[in-house]
Design goal:
This is Lycopene cyclase domain-containing protein. This protein has 259 residues and is mostly helical. It contains 8 helices and 6 strands, in the order ααβββααααβββαα.
Length: 259
């Protein structure tokens, strides 16, 4: 049966309008983030999203983890619809433009305890390890690949700035929570209309507010990536004057005499 809404129409009706509104507000509001620094951070996240997500979706789609309704997509590159690639670009913009409405950069040094970095990195790697184990099951296949895919990025971000992110946890929850809830609603509607279909075989059968738990977790995790990535990037730029000092310390650790 032909889906009553196409994937492109989902973008045109539900994704692009809030992007335009939030972008206009960020540009106009004096207290919002805008300009080269936040926009360059967004550009970096878009590139990373496309590069990192493309092989993942092109592995899961031919495995029938999800598929698309009849007539719902225009064309495909590899196994993935071009509208999906467009979403790799639009979601970072949507989430970033919301983040730009609530700017905050704390005056905290890049110096954080080494054991904090170790704990953050190990936590991300633990998520990845659990995911790898779960990929061996049929009903946990989607969940496993999601965790295995998410873990390395979380390990990198947390090992770099877990202490800083914890200090911003209330701000972080607001920045992640609002776009996540909105995208959950969009995803639920698209699934209900048959724009895309999530496999019952490769999912655990649990739902959150009527949304398969794997889909809910996907939007949560990807928005965590985006918010953390931009926040850490701006923190690094804000404390860029510390980087030469850190490099000098590394050099001295290799040669205590500084040679």
């Amino acid at each position: 049966m032909t889906a009553p809404l196409t994937y492109l129409q989902v973008h045109l009706l539900l994704i692009i309008p809030p992007i335009l509104v939030l972008g206009w507000l960020a540009y106009r509001r004096e207290r919002a983030w805008w300009g080269p620094r936040p926009l360059s951070g967004l550009a970096i996240m878009i590139v990373l999203a496309v590069v990192y997500t493309t092989p993942w979706t092109n592995h899961l789609i031919p495995a029938d983890v999800w598929w698309y309704g009849e007539g719902a997509v225009i064309a495909r590159i590899w196994y993935t619809p071009i509208e999906e690639y467009l979403f790799f670009i639009l979601q970072p913009i949507l989430t970033a433009f919301w983040l730009f409405q609530i700017p905050r950069v704390d005056d905290r040094s890049l110096w954080i305890p080494t054991h904090h970095r170790v704990v953050g990195g190990l936590a991300g790697l633990a998520i990845c390890s659990v995911g790898i184990v779960l990929t061996r099951g049929t009903s946990t296949y989607y969940l496993g690949w999601l965790l295995a895919w998410a873990g390395p990025i979380l390990a990198i971000q947390w090992s770099f700035g877990i202490t800083y992110l914890w200090g911003l946890r209330r701000h972080w929850l607001l920045a992640v929570g609002v776009p996540t809830l909105y995208l959950w609603a969009v995803d639920w509607l698209a699934i209900s209309l048959g724009v895309w279909v999530i496999s019952g075989t490769h999912t655990v059968g649990l739902s959150l507010l009527g949304l398969p738990i794997e889909e809910a977790l996907f939007f949560l995790v990807t928005n965590v990536f985006l918010v953390q990535g931009i926040v850490l990037y701006l923190w690094l730029l804000e404390r860029a004057h510390e980087v030469p000092t850190l490099a000098a310390v590394i050099d001295r650790s290799v040669d205590p005499n500084g040679r």
